[in-house]
Amino acid sequence: MKECPVCSSPEWDELSQDRFVEGNRYLRCRRCGSGFCLKDFDPASADSYYEEFYGSDGSLESMRWSRESKHLLGVSKRYLKLLSGFKPSGRLLDLGCGRAEFIYQAMQTGRYDCVGVEPSARAAREAEELFGIKVIVSTFNPELFADKKFDVIYMRHLLEHIPDPRQFVDGLKSVCAPGAVVGVHLPNDTSFTNAFKRFIYRLGKTREYGAMLYPYHMVGYTPSSLRLLFEQAGFTHLMTRTFSKFNPLYDFHWRYFDILLVPFIILAI
Q1: pTM: predicted TM-score of the whole model, two decimal places
Q2: What is the pLDDT of residues 225-250, one digit of tens each?
Q3: How far is CA 205 from CA 4, 135, 198, 200, in A?
Q4: What is the largest CA-CA distance in the chain?
């Protein structure tokens, strides 16, 4: 029996069969409200999956100085200001750091000693070319930091990719210094916009089922299920904030089809 990856409950409802991946279904946990995929992630495909994400021609991530990358520099600066209210200095770990826009902004303050981990070799190369920042090319493994502890851990659009988030969060705790702060930035699966995306998914107009997209987004979180995930591992909740596309902290540029989402964006403000 498939269990919820967040709370381990075996009780769930089927939301939809996957229109694009045979054998997969999208499910919703009855206990914590998390969405998740029925089909397990194949670890053997991880390397090609990350390189495809950063290397596909025409994708949002394909151009070195795409609008999204430039936009992320501004967004990273705003997120850093928010995060520094809890921990204004110290050793910082950015997991899934991409081209290292967040690390770049953190280094500009002179208050953080930064380390980045990124599974895509291409993104890591571009981090060095663009900002002179060398990042570790790897998925997260606590053994990478057996002799280090971090005061700040930041993850932007990473946790929804992790098929076993409880094990992952336990690993995070092992590299946290006393009083460490963890900042998590990810999609809200129960937002109005994701509800609308599930509707147009049924029409065959998008591959994303809300915040879930096998094999890229394995778990769809709600604010409460994300909090539960970390509290189960012994973390204390500090703050939760949600952002609509109208908010300057929203981290992607508008695209032409976003006009369809305007009524839902207004409701989400």
Answers
A1: 0.86
A2: 999 999 999 999 999 988 765 555 55
A3: 28, 37, 10, 6
A4: 51
